[in-house]
DNA sequence: AACTTAATAT
DNA sequence: TATATTAAGT
């Protein structure tokens, strides 16, 4: 159906060919409109109703069902799906079990585009901070607009006064899974460190529900890590930063970022999003062809990779980095289905 | 308004 | 401990 939409347009070329890489870098992220345009094209390429198995249709052929003594599935409707998601959520919560859907088919390095899934979120612990069902307290004095808009636009997309799953995931603590972190690093690398600012990173990561604050916080830590690594140029990363250590580190650091506030890059030049001043030369930075994420939204329920209509979603890989091992607070995979960024502002 | 950093809170 | 939030500066 959408096969006319050429994926190659979105792709970054292999770092072997630096010219091509540079060209790609300059062409792919000309400006925000360009990104939006590509998202639009991506959306056009989404399967339409004809491509999707209707909820009313059983996934298991009747012969199979009877051969394996599988009781016939009841007819599902959208509401059932939502409720199932909600139930899953609840049971995970009450059991306190960790639940993760990693999909890292052992090729951790080959940055294949299929290996993303599931930004996870942790329920805030303790009853303290205005949790419960109606938690909307502090917000007021904040810049409010940004955060609320970003987070909410993702949620509200499917929320129509019902959809319990959307209600359940208010503001929860984001878990930076290796996959999510990798996407982060990829984006930072491609932006070049100069341009890698929270908002831009957030947009290019294209992860629904991810806020600028999420990114800023992570970026802050990431920079500290990079700085440390630069200082100790020779030795490997310490055991404490497994997460960061698991990803290639861009060589160049922001020039003379010697403390103090931001460099002058802040407000003024937000147009030149993706323009990387220098081509990214190091294969280690972006080892292979790196399709950027414009055509693939990651959202809180897993992300859809639309080549072949195959949705990558495998379960069972352990979180090996940043094991988020604390018992307090369950890790959940958010169940609601959201259309990929409809509105990239 | 967005960014950075440090400090602090959860 | 990892992440969020706040504060104060650019």
TrEMBL record:
Coiled coil: none
UniProt-listed InterPro entries: Homeodomain-like_sf (IPR009057), LUX/BOA-like (IPR044841), Myb_dom (IPR017930), Myb_dom_plants (IPR006447), SANT/Myb (IPR001005)
Keyword Transcription in record: yes
NCBIfam families noted in UniProt: myb_SHAQKYF
Keyword annotations: Nucleus, Transcription, Transcription regulation
Span of domain HTH myb-type: 170-227
Organism of derivation: Hibiscus syriacus
Name by which UniProt lists this protein: Transcription factor PCL1
Top-level taxon in the UniProt lineage: Eukaryota
Molecular function in Gene Ontology: DNA binding; DNA-binding transcription factor activity
